[in-house]
Amino acid sequence: MELHFCGEFRASEWRRPIALPAFLTDAIAMSLLRPTLLLLSLLTVAGWAHGADTPPSRVVSINLCTDQLLLMLADADQIASVSYLSLQPESSFVAEEAQRYPVNHARPEELLALDPDLILTVEFTDRRLLGLLEKLGYRIAQLPMPTSISGIESNIRSLAKLLGQNARGEALIHQMQSMLSRIPHQPAHQRPKALFYQPRGYTSGIDTLQNEALALAGWSNLAANIGISGYSSIDLESLLLGQPDQIFSSAYTGETRSLAQRQLHHPALRHITHNRPIIEIPFKYWICGGPMIADAVAELHAALPKKQ
Amino acid sequence: MLGEIRQSRLLGLLVAAASSLFLFSLLFGSQTIPVFQALQETFDDTSSVLALILTEVRLPRALIALFAGATLGLCGAAMQAMLRNPLASPGLIGSASGAALGAVIALYFGSAALSQFSLPLGGILGSLGATLLVYLLAGRNAGTLTLILAGVAINSLTLALISLLLNLAPSPYAVQEIVLWMMGSLANSSMQNFWIMLPGTLLGWMLLLRVGRALDALTLGEETAQSMGIDLPRLRWRIFLAVALAVGSAVSVTGAIGFIGLVVPHMLRPFVGYQPGRLLAASALGGAILLLAADILVRLLPAQTEIKVGVVTALVGAPFFLYLIIKSRRYNQ
């Protein structure tokens, strides 16, 4: 085995020094400080909004998933604020970078004060908040929650386009693809069986990022094989009858004292995998779809049983 | 009404029913497996999947249903006899919810190192505390209504405290487990769970072994019983302690499964000629039968997520409870 490509995927790698629309945002910043210039700048803003290819310059993201892609794709001075969730290292892939920006808690008052020209969020967002923002005339973009690599790519592309960062978007996709392509393909008959088993007995079936990651890493996903679709619970007997070689878990919290997490310590789970312990894959790889899935695939691949 | 049956015959029938349900519970699970092959592989000591399902998934579940059901049935019968109150039972007078509260404190807030022992211990202390509180609130010679009201008050309090504590628990999963503690479930039990509940359960049963004669005497009234040499305060303490030990240990593993302790003694009372002493063993077996049957039912019901076994016992038990109330109303008129 000579696979050492688990390069940490950091958003900062994707931030190059830029000189693009900085003068525009500076103008706004100054205008806010100097009331005399306010009218002029408002007129200019209105003028830009009509121009088709003027990128937004005060982007506010209110969801962790859009926070991460925004930090990877946008210029530093395009970003007005990211959500507080992006600061939490257990779930956020960009916790360090996010510290440089003001955070918001997706509260209407906060958002109005930030004066955004684009608000980013995902498809499942509080309807009342969105309705209010729309009524106030804000431009909102909602990204779908991807369940596959191609879904991640199309999210990156569409956000890059919105931000006027097409080249950076393509580069990000290319980086993810090249990391994925370095993982050797496992022939179908050599794929050991595995599944995700989460507290409360939940697993990831067809149409989930975990399913695609397992397949790319060279595992055969037991949950998908028995026809489970999406995130659903699997009963212990079905799990055992499937005879997994490895069980993965990816809980959004560390070990705490609860019945849900006790379930992962059922002795039958250890017996069935011949005492291989459950491998914990960090939740931040897929709580949001993004290029970091390549790191998850690499970790899953590294967990394949070594050939005797 | 069905008449009295000879004790040996009654117990024989109940043992036969309980053991067939126990075997049934090993035969049927969420998945169909060739049980005889599984049995063979278990005895061959090969570590096969089938043997694993039989011994690590179904066996602990059946054993816990057997012991927890028997505990609830037995304790219900003992409490009804001691308090001379047809509605006394672990579920109604707080023993079960108190046990759940104690177990919740031990599990979510206790120290990890002590967890094996602290869980049943928490259940036992919680059960004893809640039961005594109800007993003190209602007074020694409480009528049915007073006792039930005291029970309702303490049950509401413990359930509120369980909710509060699970909301405050450090684990993000805790809140979702409120229902589990309130309704009870046997799903995903392991042999470890069974070993945890066993010592307290057996100790509680042993304390109830020889109270039959005293309970029979008590049916003649407290004074008569005392004149017959029954030490009443000692009997009371013995039963409270036994209930706390057995129910506390069982509930700390299964959650508060309701109505078994209430319903089973009533169903079997006619068959034992209304003698509390004879009812104890019969009621223990009856409780085991009811819980095993309910647990088999939840496994066979086609549902995305398994239904909690306490839901089934409540669906059977609550109408019976209403029937008891209506019946007692007729008596009182």
User: How many angstroms separate the termini of chain B?
Assistant: 22 Å
Number of domains of chain B: 1
Please report which band the strand proportion of chain B falls in: under 5%, 5-15%, 15-25%, 25-35%, 35-45% or over 45%: under 5%
CATH homologous superfamily assignment of chain B? ABC transporter involved in vitamin B12 uptake, BtuC
Q: What is the C-alpha radius of gyration of chain A, as a whole number of Å?
A: 22 Å
Strand content of chain A: 5-15%
Q: Which structural class best describes the helix and strand composition of chain B? A: mainly alpha
Shape field of chain B: globular
Order of SSEs of chain B, N→C?
HHHHHHHHHHHHHH
Low-confidence stretches of chain B: none
Which strand order does the major sheet of chain A show? 3-2-1-4-5
Residue-averaged pLDDT of chain B: 90
Treating each run of at least 4 consecutive H or I residues as one helix, how many helices of chain B?
14
Main sheet record of chain A: 5 strands, parallel
Which CATH architecture of the largest domain in chain A is right?
A: 3-Layer(aba) Sandwich
Decide which structural class fits the backbone of chain A: alpha/beta
Could you give the topology of this structure?
The complex is a heterodimer of chains A (308) and B (333).
Chain A: H1 22-33, H2 38-50, E1 59-61, H3 64-73, E2 79-83, H4 95-98, E3 103-104, H5 108-114, E4 118-122, H6 127-135, E5 140-143, H7 149-163, H8 166-181, E6 193-196, E7 202-204, H9 209-217, E8 220-221, H10 222-225, E9 231-233, H11 236-241, E10 246-249, H12 259-262, H13 267-272, E11 279-280, H14 293-302
Parallel strand pairs in A: 1-2, 1-4, 2-3, 4-5, 6-8, 6-10, 10-11
Antiparallel strand pairs in A: 7-9
Helix pairs in contact in A: 1-2, 7-8, 8-14, 9-14
Chain B: H1 7-27, H2 35-43, H3 49-83, H4 95-109, H5 115-138, H6 144-168, H7 178-183, H8 191-207, H9 212-218, H10 222-227, H11 232-254, H12 260-268, H13 276-300, H14 309-332
Helix pairs in contact in B: 1-3, 1-13, 2-3, 3-8, 3-11, 3-12, 3-13, 4-5, 4-6, 4-11, 5-6, 5-11, 8-11, 9-13, 12-13, 13-14
